[in-house]
Every structure is written in C-alpha cells, then in structure tokens.
C-alpha cells in the first residue's frame, strides 16, 4: 500500500489511533499519534526495512479519533493486546502475576490468591509475586503463623463441622464460632503487618505477648508464641533488603543482540526484593521501546507501584506518568536508576536480562518459545500462558462426570483442577450435551472471577470441537479464547488436531514439541477424569449398600459418604473409628459392619 498526499489530506490533525490491515482484514500494526496526519506523513518515505515490509503487506488504513493523547494511548494498548499485531513490539509476558488478597470488608477476612485487582475493591492486595511457586511459599508461611480462613463464603455458611485446616492448626474455624471476630481481627492485623514489610514491629509485638503470657503462668501459650517468634525471625533474616528506604518500585532492564531482545523486571516492595521476572520482545524496538513496554506490561488489573525505574525515560514521560497514575489511583513517577542503591539494582536486572538472552541464543527451549509456536500452529488469538483441557467419563450412562485440568506456563496447576457431576443429562449418554454443560459451568465461573484460559483443549473429535465452539459463541468468547480438539481415531493414524477454522485435521510431527505438549495435557485430563469417575461409581455403590441398613438414616448416610468411598474402606475402618463419627455409637457401628460383611459374602458367593 502506498500512502498519498491526497489520502493524508482526508486524515484530521487530531489525536487518535491508526490501524494497518492486510487483504483479509487482519491487523498488521496499531499506532497512536498526537497528530494523526503528521504521524502518517512519516510513512510517505519509510526509513526502515520493517516499515517498507509493513506497507507492502498493508491494503487498508483505518483511523480512530480520540479526545486527547491519553485516550489514544489507552486505545492503542487495548488494541495491541486484543489483536497481537505482527509488526508491533509484542511483550511475551504480559500476563497478570499472582497477588495475595485479604478481604477486609468481611466479618472474618479471607485469604485468597488472585491474578487481577478488582476496580473499587476494598480489599488489600500484596504483590505481585513472580511465580505461582513464590506466592504458594508466602501463603504457606502466612497460614503457618497467621491462620486465616481460605474457604469461600458459601462454604463457610454450609459448614457444620471444622475442616481439615482447623484440625491441623491452620484455621481457627470462624465458621463454627470457635473464635471471636475481635481475636480473628488481631490475626488479620498481624498478617497484614508481615505482608507490608513491618516484620520487626510484629516481632516486638509477639515478644510482648509471649512475656505477658509467661507472667500469667500461661506457659503453653508462651511456648507457642516463642516458637512462632523464632521462626519469624529466621524468615525476616532471609529477606533481602535492597533499598535504604521502604519504597515500592518496579525496575526494568533490556538486553539485545540484533533482533533478539530479552528483558527483566525486579519487584521491590517496602524496600525488599520480592522477586524478578523475565520477559521477551517480539519485534525490533527501533527507538524509544519503553512506551510500548509500559503499555503492554501494565493494565487495570495489575498492582502498580509508586515508582517505575527505566534505563532511559520514554519520550512521552509525562503522558505515561499520568496514565499509570490513573490506573494506580495515586501518583506514579518514572525515573532513571540514579544513585548507588538503584544503580546496583539495575545491574542485577541487567545481568538477569543478559542471562535470559544467552539462553535464547544457545537455543534453550523456554515456555515462551513453545507458547509462541502453539499460537502460530493452532492459530490462537493470543500467545497462551494458561491452557486448560476438558474430558468426560461415564459407564453406559451411569455416574457421568466431567473434569478440567489447568496448565500454567507449561506445568500442571493442580489448585485449578475442577471436577463436575453431570446434572442436566441422564439416561442415554450424550457426550456433546455433557461437554456443553461442563464447559458452560467452567466459563460462567471464569467470567464471574475474571479467570479464563487462553487455550481450551478438548479430548475428542470434530463434533466435540463444534460443541465447544458453539459454547464460546454463546458466551461471546469465540475468537478471544483459543480452541482445539485432539483425537486418536485409529491406532495406525496417530493423533489428529482439529481447529475451528480448518476443514481437515492437522497432522503434527509425533516428535514435535507442540504435539507432545497437547498429548501431555490430554493424557492428564484423561487420567484425572477417570480417577474421579471411579471414585463416583464407588460412592454410588456404597450408597446403594447403605440403603435399608437399620439405624442408617439420611444424616448418617451422608456422613459416611462424605468420609468413605467404598464398602471395603468402611470395613477396614473398624468399629472403634465408626463409633466416634458424629451421630454414631458402638451399637450403630456394630450393626453397620455386620450388614456390610454379610453383603460382601453374598456378592462373592456363586449364583445358583
């Protein structure tokens, strides 16, 4: 496409966004400008091979006017994240990192791990943490010293007895009133103090509580506080203090060789290094890449610190400071790494970026590389970070169940595995109807929690794929969530990959990493759903065994099914264990075991 002076005269001298598209309508490049006509005039004499290549492929130019430059910046950022244009600089790690959320507005605040900050939320957020492993370790420490509930509000209302976390000392069971709101609030305040970096204040408070307990001759309480105090002091010693003042900042560095660019960002909170994360750039940063990096790295769901440190300031520094301040809800300053402390931090970030670049140059395969290949081969709308797979299982229509497994950055994320009893389909098995139900329940929950996968992998063929596609279309998500199905139709044919916009299935190399990853995800969901189906059948079998046994009514039956999955488990538990269950006694336990032994004998005896 060639821009002409006549075409430019039609473009207003106003702020806005311009979009180059190819002949099929696909977005090739998105840019913003304070003055659209002046910015597009620079394309009359393209200075770089990349720009000339862009114009040779572009067949259509669109412009979108905005009221000011900041609106143009926001629109550009949203369009780049939506379309992932080929000729834009693309940050291959623009996901949300884990955060710890404490819901202060509730009577008994809850501890959860989330990836997005809700707008207008009254809860406290801490992070970001560089990985799921890092946040799990922090939660492990928190629940060890500051036992806060982790069950949902609905679970808390339903509970009639303390959960396992209470039994192992990691929850004070507010669900049953075993702790007062005032005492619980003290635990919350201590946890918040720890997360805010006020660990030394917490040490002093624990020491005072320990001494007071000893003076009251509460030696058992004093010993618990002493052990907690010692462990907390060890943890605080291990935390790296990198700034002389308690400051929150993100610090960036880039390393490059030719077209290959890698970067690192350090997360510093309250003057302590929380962790770091590596990211990669797709595309060549010709000049002033930092504006584009900021656009893609930050958005409304992320926790933005008061300071962002870059090796060089973007040309539109004031504009980006204003935009980040709006997202944060408070002032944000962009600055260079000046001074000894920030200079040392920058050297650390740069070394991490250089090591990431060397790994890429050595040809080491990273998740980012595999994710990019997945996006290319499967024609995905985004480069995936979270991949989920769905599978079903039933036995001639009995005990129908479904399951979802989740992978994050190529590894199983078992905290997000989900199991589903089929509710709307009964009688003759209908795989498509069952699949629609499972996906519908997963997507509805994901929309409520703003937690959707980047890619859905369906264990099945063309019909299963079309069912999943219809579901995504019904929820307005087709084209936003990637979709594929994997099936082995005949032993001699190998795996077939079905895609929504492709008539014939893909035949991928059995030695290729894309197929190996998809098979790994498929095999994991297959294993998970079969295990769940077997457990469901055993529980249903146990339920039928319990019917008609004297003394076993609805409540006792529910208690048994909650704890045991088969008659064999009940028999091995023994009379003593069963007699101690809520609502049971020795007489009921003995009667139950006698009937189960007799039923077991009847099942094993040959029929006449």
List the helices and strands and how they pair.
Blueprint: H1 5-9, E1 16-21, E2 27-33, H2 36-41, H3 49-57, E3 60-65, H4 69-83, E4 90-91, E5 99-102, E6 111-114, E7 124-126, H5 132-145, H6 153-158, H7 164-167, H8 181-195, H9 199-215, H10 219-238, E8 249-257, E9 260-269, E10 272-282, H11 290-297, E11 307-309, H12 317-328, E12 333-335, H13 340-361, H14 367-377, E13 386-395, E14 398-408, E15 411-412, E16 418-421, H15 431-449, E17 455-459, H16 462-474, E18 482-487, E19 496-498, H17 513-546, H18 554-563, H19 567-579, H20 586-604
Parallel strand pairs: 8-11, 11-12, 13-17, 17-18
Antiparallel strand pairs: 1-2, 1-3, 4-10, 5-6, 5-7, 8-9, 9-10, 13-14, 14-15, 14-16, 18-19
Descriptive account of the structure:
With 608 residues, this protein is an alpha+beta fold. The chain is built from 20 helices and 19 strands. It has helices at 5-9, 36-41, 49-57, 69-83, 132-145, 153-158, 164-167, 181-195, 199-215, 219-238, 290-297, 317-328, 340-361, 367-377, 431-449, 462-474, 513-546, 554-563, 567-579, 586-604; strands at 16-21, 27-33, 60-65, 90-91, 99-102, 111-114, 124-126, 249-257, 260-269, 272-282, 307-309, 333-335, 386-395, 398-408, 411-412, 418-421, 455-459, 482-487, 496-498. Strands 13, 14, 15, 16, 17, 18 and 19 form a 7-stranded mixed sheet that branches. A 6-stranded mixed sheet has the order 4-10-9-8-11-12. Strands 2-1-3 form a 3-stranded antiparallel sheet. α9 runs antiparallel to α10 and α15 runs parallel beside α16. The N and C termini lie far apart (87 Å). The relative contact order is 0.06.
């Amino acid at each position: 496409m060639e821009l002409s002076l006549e075409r430019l005269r039609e473009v207003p001298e106003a702020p806005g966004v311009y979009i180059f598209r190819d002949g099929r309508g696909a977005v090739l490049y998105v840019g913003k400008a304070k003055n659209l006509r002046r910015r597009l005039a620079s394309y009359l004499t393209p200075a770089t091979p990349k720009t000339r290549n862009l114009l040779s492929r572009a067949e259509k130019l669109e412009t979108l006017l905005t009221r000011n430059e900041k609106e143009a910046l926001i629109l550009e950022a949203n369009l780049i994240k939506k379309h992932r244009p080929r000729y834009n600089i693309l940050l291959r790690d623009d996901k949300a990192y884990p955060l710890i959320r404490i819901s202060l507005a509730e009577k008994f605040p809850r501890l959860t791990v989330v990836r997005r900050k809700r707008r207008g939320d009254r809860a406290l957020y801490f992070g970001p943490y560089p990985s799921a492993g890092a946040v799990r370790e922090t939660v492990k420490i928190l629940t060890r010293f500051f036992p806060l509930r982790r069950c949902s509000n609905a679970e808390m209302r339903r509970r009639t007895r303390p959960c396992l976390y209470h039994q192992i000392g990691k929850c004070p069971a507010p669900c049953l009133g075993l702790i007062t709101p005032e005492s619980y609030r003290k635990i919350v305040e201590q946890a918040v103090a720890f997360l805010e970096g006020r660990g030394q204040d917490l040490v002093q408070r624990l020491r005072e509580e320990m001494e007071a307990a000893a003076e009251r001759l509460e030696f058992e309480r004093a010993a618990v506080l002493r052990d907690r105090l010692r462990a907390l002091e060890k943890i605080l010693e291990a935390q790296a203090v990198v700034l002389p003042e308690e400051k929150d900042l993100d610090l960036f560095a880039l390393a490059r060789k030719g077209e290959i660019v890698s970067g690192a960002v350090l997360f510093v909170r309250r003057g302590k290094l929380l962790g770091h994360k590596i990211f990669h750039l797709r595309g060549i940063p010709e000049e002033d890449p930092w504006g584009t990096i900021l656009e893609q790295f930050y958005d409304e769901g992320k926790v933005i610190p008061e300071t962002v440190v870059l090796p060089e300031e973007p040309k539109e520094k004031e504009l980006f400071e204003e935009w980040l301040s709006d997202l944060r809800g408070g002032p944000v300053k962009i600055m260079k790494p000046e001074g000894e402390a920030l200079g040392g931090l920058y050297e650390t970030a740069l070394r991490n970026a250089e090591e990431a670049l060397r790994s890429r140059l050595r040809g080491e395969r990273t998740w980012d590389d595999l994710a990019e290949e997945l996006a290319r081969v499967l024609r995905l709308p985004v480069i995936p970070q979270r991949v989920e797979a769905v599978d079903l299982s039933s036995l001639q229509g009995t005990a129908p169940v479904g399951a979802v497994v989740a992978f994050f950055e190529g590894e199983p994320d078992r905290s997000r595995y989900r199991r589903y009893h089929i509710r709307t389909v009964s009688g003759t098995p209908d795989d498509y109807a069952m699949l629609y139900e499972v996906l519908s329940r997963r997507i509805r929950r994901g929309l409520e929690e703003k937690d959707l996968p980047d890619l859905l992998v369906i264990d099945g063929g063309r019909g299963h794929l079309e069912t999943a596609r219809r579901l995504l279309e019904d929820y307005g998500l087709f084209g936003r969530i990637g979709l594929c199905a994997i099936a082995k139709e005949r032993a001699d044919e190998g795996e077939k990959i079905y895609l929504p916009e492709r008539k014939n299935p893909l035949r991928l190399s059995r030695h290729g990493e894309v197929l190996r990853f998809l098979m790994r995800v498929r095999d994991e969901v297959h294993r998970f759903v079969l295990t769940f189906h077997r457990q469901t059948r055993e529980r249903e079998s146990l339920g039928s065994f319990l019917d008609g046994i004297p003394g076993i009514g609805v409540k006792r039956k529910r208690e048994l099914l909650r704890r045991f999955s088969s008659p064999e488990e009940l028999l091995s538990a023994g009379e003593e264990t069963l007699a101690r269950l809520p609502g049971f006694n020795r007489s009921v336990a003995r009667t139950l075991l006698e009937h189960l032994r007799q039923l077991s004998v009847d099942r094993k005896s040959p029929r006449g």
